[in-house]
Amino acid sequence: MEIVGFLQENTRKGQGRGPFHLSDLIQMVEKQQESGIGVSVGKTTTIYVLFSRGEPDGAVAVDEKGALFGDKAVLLLKGGELFEFFTIDPEDIDGVVLGCRIFQKGHIKKTMMPNIPRIINRNEGMGQFIMTVHSSGVPQSGIHVSLRRRGQIVGSDVTTGEGKAYFKILFGSYSCAILDRDHKIRTFQFEFNRSGYELRVDLGD
Fold it and tell me: b/e for 76-85, b at 16 or more Cβ within 10 A?
């Protein structure tokens, strides 16, 4: 099977993990010494990063004009992409990496968003934030929701049968990423300034 077909087939099976910013994904995979595929679906380009035993060893970028492999694919990364991760057998990954190997690892490291230390002001308020996810008015269960503040993921949860995800966070500005059932990632910004605040998002809008 050719490389792009292999990547597409193996990222359509089941539910992946995520979403992750590239820096968070690289750290998680390295720590757990996993092998698999990270995929980021953009408006015009889909980027795959292939991990073998904890290392980002391959990359492929696909758009309507064709595909770029290895270092050329990495150069398209801007650092703000969100990835979903699918675990794959390392022997299968090693075979595919031969055709899309990253030789200049410095390229992918330049795209990593820096880990910004979380400095907590003890005067800042903290409270419960509730995210409710619907689709055309119907509550959606099993949807992955993650929150990010100051360049760092501060919470992630999966929605309940009522479509609710719960977080205990500091007051402030946040970015939110929602991974829907079609493996599409929705992102938006919001302001949290009172405990018990509930934000409703309808994926059908």
Answer: ebeeebbbbb
